[in-house]
């Protein structure tokens, strides 16, 4: 094969707003701790019931949950009740995730978050603790501790701000202002909630909008206008005439003249009244906008959070980044399960969804291929040549390399559905007349080749019913076909892992592009560790049970043959 594939140029790659880096779970089902890197190719292996599937199931839990609800039992995975999801003996579980933020000043920040979840009732998980950091520096921490039911009810009557209230403990590594909270719905923060301090409101108004400041920079009068206009709309009494005059003048473009005519004493009178009324408000909820929106509308956020110090902006940035990072992961997940459908003459249509475009059992593969016939996908073939072809032709190129068929075609059967046909040895046949392996691998090829750029494609046991030689070639497909997506492959195939190691040793794949995770269980507790590949394809560790059956059987075979030979020679 040719030289290592390089897919890293600025022209070849476009970043989403937040580019996922990793996913971590603690105390999820039997899993004590596991981190899943979200890059290129990750193979997840280990003995049966070692916890491999649990790591993927945690991603599926995210993918099937909505913006305001954690769905334990949905179309992708059914996890039981809340007690089934939290590891036995633990009070909560946690998810962690990290992502690169949007490029800023020719650099990117790495954001990381951790969210602890506890059972609210038999079927419901709710946020318990939240932590955010950027480039390793703590930005925000919040907890449900010391938030009594009475406090939560007074802050969040009727759940108007969300289903959970957390008290902000620290912002930027320092103690947070008192009476500041975050509301959550499901996995996502919703609003920053606080009580305004009238003395702080007055102090900030005087510092920001004194006569000297307004005369030095008349443009800031528009920020003052927004504050006064918002206040006037909710004010219990009619505003003083000076405020009406100021606002009207701003609307008609004569703010500068009014600013130069007003005295500091007149401004102070206005500010005192505004501060007094704002300080008497019950609770103020500042909804969390998107990260980019917050960056471009900082003035609006400062207006909303008047009465808090500037650290409120830091908190908002962390919460916005948390929302966008988690959404980037959730929207990227694509899934194909291990128990794929048996070969069918005709398969159904219309059951697709974003996360499982081929169906969780591959039952809509024909439908996916038919829909992909009208547009081209970009991929690499087995010679690492960049290609751009309709999806069925792209799949055909790789079925040829795998040795399971020369070309793929889809027949539309109207109301009955669509039939998938594979040409084998020059004869086109439906899937029921050829080996089961072909029907099992076609959904894998279609899912990967049809995936959006930067998708996180999760595949369980893609090697099922495949000959060892085909399993090895399947590793080449994972390594080379779509270097612009992230693959998570749960596998029991020693042949697949060995081919990856071989390609690294041959310098046809960078060791950093292939991560091998090994899951193991000890006394009912599962953990996952990363086995580092070096440039020779060797592993940093060879844990017990890591594909050692063939080696031990080979040694036993040699020993048995030697013993038989020795016995016969007597």
UniProtKB/TrEMBL annotation:
Q: Which InterPro entries match?
A: ATPase_AAA_core, Bact_Antivir_Def_Nuclease, DUF3696, P-loop_NTPase
* Source superkingdom: Bacteria
Q: Name one Pfam family in it.
A: DUF3696
Q: List, for all copies, the residue spans of the domain called DUF3696.
A: 511-557
In terms of SUPFAM superfamilies, this protein maps to: P-loop containing nucleoside triphosphate hydrolases
From the Swiss-Prot or TrEMBL record, what is one GO molecular function term?
A: ATP binding
Q: Which Gene3D superfamilies match?
A: P-loop containing nucleotide triphosphate hydrolases
Please list the residue ranges annotated as the ATPase AAA-type core domain. Answer: 427-497
Keywords attached to this Swiss-Prot or TrEMBL record, sorted alphabetically, are: ATP-binding, Nucleotide-binding
- Name the chain's protein: Energy-coupling factor transporter ATP-binding protein EcfA2
Q: Which organism is it from?
A: Nocardioides albus
């Amino acid at each position: 094969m040719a030289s290592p594939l390089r897919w890293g140029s600025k022209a070849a790659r476009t970043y989403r707003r937040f580019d996922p880096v990793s996913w971590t779970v603690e105390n999820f089902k039997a899993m004590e701790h596991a981190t899943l890197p979200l890059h290129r190719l990750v193979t997840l292996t280990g003995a049966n019931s070692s916890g491999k599937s649990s790591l993927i199931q945690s991603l599926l839990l995210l993918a099937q949950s909505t913006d305001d609800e954690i769905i334990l039992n949905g179309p992708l995975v059914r996890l039981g009740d809340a007690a089934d999801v939290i590891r036995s003996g633990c009070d909560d579980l946690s998810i962690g995730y990290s992502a690169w933020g949007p490029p800023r000043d020719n650099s990117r920040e790495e954001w990381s978050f951790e969210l602890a979840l506890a059972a609210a009732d038999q079927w419901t998980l709710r946020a318990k603790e939240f932590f955010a950091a950027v480039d390793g520096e703590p930005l925000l921490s919040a907890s449900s501790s010391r938030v009594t039911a009475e406090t939560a009810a007074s802050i969040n009557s009727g759940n108007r701000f969300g289903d959970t209230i957390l008290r902000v403990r620290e912002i930027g590594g320092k103690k947070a202002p008192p009476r500041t909270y975050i509301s959550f719905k499901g996995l996502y923060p919703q609003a920053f909630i606080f009580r305004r301090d009238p003395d702080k409101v007055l102090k900030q108004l005087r510092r920001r909008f004194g006569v000297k400041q307004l005369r030095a920079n008349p443009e800031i009068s528009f920020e003052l206008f927004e504050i006064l206009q918002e206040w006037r709309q909710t004010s219990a009494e009619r505003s003083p005439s000076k405020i009406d005059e100021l606002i009207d003048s701003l609307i008609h473009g004569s703010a500068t003249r009014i600013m130069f005519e007003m005295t500091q004493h007149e401004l102070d009178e206005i500010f005192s009244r505004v501060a007094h009324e704002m300080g008497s408000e019950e609770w103020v909820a500042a909804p969390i906008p998107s990260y980019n929106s917050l960056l471009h509308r900082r003035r609006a956020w400062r207006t909303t959070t008047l009465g808090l110090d500037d650290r409120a902006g830091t908190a908002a940035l962390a919460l916005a980044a948390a929302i966008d990072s988690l959404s980037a992961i959730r929207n990227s997940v694509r899934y194909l399960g291990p128990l794929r459908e048996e070969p069918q003459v005709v398969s159904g249509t219309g059951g697709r969804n974003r996360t499982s475009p081929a169906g969780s059992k591959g039952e809509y593969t024909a439908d996916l291929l038919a829909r992909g016939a009208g547009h081209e996908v970009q991929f690499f073939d087995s010679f690492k040549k960049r290609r751009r072809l309709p999806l069925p032709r792209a799949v055909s190129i790789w079925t040829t390399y795998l040795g399971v068929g020369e070309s793929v075609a889809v027949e539309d059967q109207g109301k009955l559905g669509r039939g998938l046909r594979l040409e084998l040895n020059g004869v086109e046949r439906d899937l029921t007349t050829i080996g089961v392996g072909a029907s099992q691998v076609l959904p894998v090829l279609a899912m990967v080749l049809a995936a959006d750029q930067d998708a996180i494609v999760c595949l369980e046991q893609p090697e099922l019913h495949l000959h060892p030689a085909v399993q090895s070639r399947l590793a080449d497909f994972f390594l080379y076909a779509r270097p612009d997506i992230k693959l998570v492959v749960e596998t029991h195939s020693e042949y697949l892992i060995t081919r990856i190691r071989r390609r690294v040793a041959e310098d046809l794949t960078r060791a950093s592009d292939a991560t091998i995770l090994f899951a193991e269980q000890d006394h009912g507790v599962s953990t996952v560790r990363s086995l580092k590949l070096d440039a020779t394809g060797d592993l940093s560790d060879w844990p017990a049970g890591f594909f050692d059956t063939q080696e031990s059987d080979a040694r036993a075979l040699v020993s048995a043959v030697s013993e038989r030979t020795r016995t016969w020679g007597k």
